[in-house]
Amino acid sequence: MTTLTRAQISEHIYSQVGLSRHESADLLETVLELIAARLEKGETVKLSGFGTFSVRQKGRRVGRNPKTGIEVPILPRSVLVFRPSQILRAEVNGESTEGLASESDDS
Hints:
Elements: H1 6-17, H2 21-40, E1 45-47, E2 51-58, E3 61-64, E4 71-74, E5 77-84, H3 86-92
Family: Belongs to the bacterial histone-like protein family.
Function: This protein is one of the two subunits of integration host factor, a specific DNA-binding protein that functions in genetic recombination as well as in transcriptional and translational control.
Subunit structure: Heterodimer of an alpha and a beta chain.
Protein backbone atom coordinates (compact mmCIF):
# COMPACT_ATOMS: atom_id res chain seq x y z
CA MET A 1 0.00 0.00 0.00
CA THR A 2 1.37 3.42 -0.92
CA THR A 3 0.33 6.78 0.41
CA LEU A 4 -0.59 9.62 -1.91
CA THR A 5 1.04 12.77 -0.51
CA ARG A 6 0.33 16.46 -1.02
CA ALA A 7 3.71 16.76 -2.72
CA GLN A 8 2.77 14.05 -5.23
CA ILE A 9 -0.58 15.70 -5.97
CA SER A 10 1.12 19.08 -6.33
CA GLU A 11 3.70 17.58 -8.70
CA HIS A 12 0.91 16.02 -10.78
CA ILE A 13 -0.85 19.40 -11.00
CA TYR A 14 2.47 20.94 -12.07
CA SER A 15 3.02 18.38 -14.84
CA GLN A 16 -0.57 18.31 -16.12
CA VAL A 17 -1.73 21.93 -15.82
CA GLY A 18 1.49 23.80 -16.46
CA LEU A 19 1.50 26.01 -13.39
CA SER A 20 4.80 26.52 -11.60
CA ARG A 21 5.60 24.12 -8.76
CA HIS A 22 4.92 26.90 -6.25
CA GLU A 23 1.59 27.82 -7.86
CA SER A 24 0.60 24.14 -8.00
CA ALA A 25 1.32 23.72 -4.29
CA ASP A 26 -0.61 26.92 -3.49
CA LEU A 27 -3.58 25.75 -5.57
CA LEU A 28 -3.70 22.41 -3.78
CA GLU A 29 -3.45 24.04 -0.35
CA THR A 30 -6.23 26.49 -1.23
CA VAL A 31 -8.56 23.68 -2.34
CA LEU A 32 -7.83 21.59 0.76
CA GLU A 33 -8.29 24.62 3.06
CA LEU A 34 -11.63 25.42 1.38
CA ILE A 35 -12.87 21.86 1.83
CA ALA A 36 -11.72 21.76 5.47
CA ALA A 37 -13.32 25.15 6.24
CA ARG A 38 -16.68 24.03 4.83
CA LEU A 39 -16.57 20.79 6.82
CA GLU A 40 -15.66 22.68 10.01
CA LYS A 41 -18.85 24.71 9.50
CA GLY A 42 -20.81 21.45 9.26
CA GLU A 43 -21.49 21.86 5.54
CA THR A 44 -21.44 19.02 3.00
CA VAL A 45 -18.78 19.05 0.27
CA LYS A 46 -19.69 17.27 -2.96
CA LEU A 47 -17.02 16.62 -5.58
CA SER A 48 -18.92 15.51 -8.66
CA GLY A 49 -17.75 12.16 -9.98
CA PHE A 50 -15.67 11.55 -6.84
CA GLY A 51 -17.87 11.62 -3.74
CA THR A 52 -19.36 13.55 -0.87
CA PHE A 53 -17.77 14.55 2.44
CA SER A 54 -20.11 15.35 5.31
CA VAL A 55 -20.03 15.74 9.08
CA ARG A 56 -22.31 13.55 11.15
CA GLN A 57 -23.11 13.98 14.82
CA LYS A 58 -22.84 10.93 17.05
CA GLY A 59 -24.81 11.05 20.25
CA ARG A 60 -23.78 10.12 23.77
CA ARG A 61 -23.68 6.39 24.34
CA VAL A 62 -22.36 3.79 26.73
CA GLY A 63 -19.36 1.73 25.71
CA ARG A 64 -17.59 -1.11 27.42
CA ASN A 65 -13.88 -1.48 28.13
CA PRO A 66 -13.08 -4.81 26.43
CA LYS A 67 -10.31 -5.59 28.89
CA THR A 68 -12.18 -4.97 32.14
CA GLY A 69 -15.82 -5.09 31.03
CA ILE A 70 -16.52 -1.81 32.84
CA GLU A 71 -19.10 0.44 31.19
CA VAL A 72 -17.75 3.84 30.16
CA PRO A 73 -19.74 6.83 28.83
CA ILE A 74 -18.76 7.93 25.32
CA LEU A 75 -19.36 11.64 24.83
CA PRO A 76 -21.14 13.12 21.78
CA ARG A 77 -18.84 13.96 18.89
CA SER A 78 -18.67 14.88 15.24
CA VAL A 79 -17.38 12.37 12.70
CA LEU A 80 -16.29 12.92 9.11
CA VAL A 81 -18.07 10.70 6.61
CA PHE A 82 -17.07 10.09 2.98
CA ARG A 83 -19.51 8.58 0.53
CA PRO A 84 -17.97 7.68 -2.85
CA SER A 85 -19.84 8.44 -6.06
CA GLN A 86 -21.17 5.64 -8.24
CA ILE A 87 -18.38 6.40 -10.71
CA LEU A 88 -15.58 6.11 -8.13
CA ARG A 89 -17.15 3.00 -6.65
CA ALA A 90 -17.33 1.36 -10.10
CA GLU A 91 -13.72 2.29 -10.94
CA VAL A 92 -12.42 0.90 -7.63
CA ASN A 93 -14.30 -2.34 -8.27
CA GLY A 94 -13.01 -2.60 -11.85
CA GLU A 95 -16.49 -2.19 -13.29
CA SER A 96 -17.54 -0.21 -16.34
CA THR A 97 -18.46 3.40 -15.73
CA GLU A 98 -20.30 3.57 -19.04
CA GLY A 99 -23.77 4.98 -18.54
CA LEU A 100 -22.94 6.54 -15.19
CA ALA A 101 -23.39 10.30 -15.35
CA SER A 102 -20.82 12.35 -13.47
CA GLU A 103 -23.67 14.03 -11.57
CA SER A 104 -25.07 10.76 -10.16
CA ASP A 105 -23.30 10.89 -6.78
CA ASP A 106 -26.52 10.42 -4.82
CA SER A 107 -26.84 6.64 -4.74
